Amino acid sequence: MARVKNMFFNLFALLGLVNARQAFPGIILDRASEILQSYDYVVVGGGLSGLVVANRLSEDSGTTVLIIEAGGFTENEDWVTIPLITSSNDPAVGHGPIGSKYDWNMTSIPQPELGNRSVNTPAGKVIGGGTVLNGMVFNRGSRADYDRWEALGNPGWNFENLLPYFKKSEIFTPPDLKLEAEGWDIQYNPAYHGEHGHVHSSFAPFVWPSTRNYINAMKELEVPIINDAMGGDATGAYWFTQSVNPENETRSTSQGFYDPSRPNLHLLIGNRVTKAIIESGKVECIEFSAGENATTSSVKVLKEAILSAGALHTPQILLLSGIGETAHLSSLGIETVVDLPGVGANYHDHLLLFIGQTVNVSPNVANFSNQTWTSEQFSLYESEREGPFTTLGGNFFAFLPAGTFSNATALSSAATAQQASHYLSPNTPPTVRAGYEAQFALLTSDISSSTVAYMEFIFGDNTILPALHQPFSRGTVSINSTSPFDNPVIDPRYLSNPLDLALFVAGFEYARKIRGTAAMQEINVTETYPGASVMTSEQIEEFVRGGVSTEHHHSGTASMLPQELGGVVDSKLRLYGVEGLRIVDASIVPMVPAAHLQATLYGIAEKAADLIKSSH
């Protein structure tokens, strides 16, 4: 019946008897023939940013919006929805969606500073994008992280301006009273949280016993305990919220922004955007296809196209559309539409390092090697939504300034001694080089700051994970093929700047310092990997090179910067040189904040929707 209805609708549309503002309510589509010929807004990508923007634009019932997404919906598998399973690295618990059919399953090219290893670069190929794959940590960076964006030439992009947008997306739930009864002092400030958004943030109802030891270890090391890091003071140790719906203790994704009841919002799944058609400096159409051997179709853009394909695919689509560095485009036989050398440049990411350990906690609540115990805990989750399966494997972590975990004076001297862009790729365009030099100045000056975190420390029973959050290294995302169905060429150039390796060595040694505190020795913490055989700086460096992996917070490849600094979009997220085309995803982030990225991206997308509305 639906097929017949769609057939008649499309016939009427072709005859001009039905216009776009009387669209049929069969909004989830899987064939190009089912969409309208034109939409006010075409959103490329149904991930976090795309769904937020589409939701806000379609609030106006007189506006038509189409989302085009290469993936589809999840089937709500346990390994997607259950917090501990989806975030676990323990085979006894299970593995999450990374590496699954919901992941693009791409890898970087071999990385010289990592022993020529290729690194997996997860990215969501699914409605909800990275919010289906991520570790569900829901936190924001420090005030200084966002104020940097404004300092780089983006008026209005500072923490105070972004805070209302951060809050707008959120449904915050305070900690359960039973946690207070158990003696856990979890503080929060309601002024920093929203209540009427579409993504949940909540505290896990279960707390790992080792959390108390980690809290005491931080106090022992004179690390400040922050009551609520969501208000811009985020350097120290704190309880974190997770993007989990407390009503059923399952993953909360950006799918909450998708409203299937709106007849003016259409979603085309299983189709990949191949390029944007630009005519006379304005975006006219978006081309897409269901597969390499399928027919290519197009849809007309009446007002704007919003490119939200993510930091790995957004530059690919731009390059295939003739937008990028002319020399690169010419080498592939692509005619230049707009010469924008910053497309695909300024790639950076957060890197983490796994270090193994054991603890002896009483009672032992992490005995996953015991299948009977694991089954009991899983049954507890299924029946009561309680126990360790409601968590991400931890409850508390730290984001620390360089001076807390390293010799900041020595690092600052090493940075000052560098020629700012010396470690960039030799073929880096001059404008991109100039933009990096501005970033380098901020990174260098903030080494001595107490308000900018350079390293994250993730705490769990079996690990302390140091993660670099202020990388000096920069890479690229490019193409070596004119086929949109070939993967982009991802070259992160991890650790290409030796300052990043120095920060990691210091982070590794500080993780050992944490384990050596009296508070941690109360539970007999013992490092099992790499263990006592790795002691010298040279050995630690080798361990870092062989072990670092991505937190998949891919950023920067279509940066919001002035064009003379290698920018791709202006402060209103409009693509330079093209009318009616904006970018709204992590690719616009000029410097990644010291935080897991999703909460920041919700705020960016909320602000972007207002910018778009104000233009029309």
UniProtKB/TrEMBL annotation:
GO terms for MF: flavin adenine dinucleotide binding; oxidoreductase activity, acting on CH-OH group of donors
Domain Glucose-methanol-choline oxidoreductase N-terminal: 124-147, 310-324
InterPro entries xref list: FAD/NAD-bd_sf (IPR036188), GMC_OxRdtase (IPR012132), GMC_OxRdtase_N (IPR000172), GMC_OxRtase_C (IPR007867)
Biological process (GO), any one: secondary metabolite biosynthetic process
Cofactor annotation: FAD
Active site (catalytic residues): H553, H596
Secretion signal span: 1-20
UniProtKB keywords: FAD, Flavoprotein, Signal
Residues reported in the UniProt entry to bind FAD: V126, N134, G135, M136, V137, V273
Similarity comment text for this entry: Belongs to the GMC oxidoreductase family.
Name used for this protein in its record: Alcohol oxidase
Lineage: Eukaryota, Fungi, Dikarya, Ascomycota, Pezizomycotina
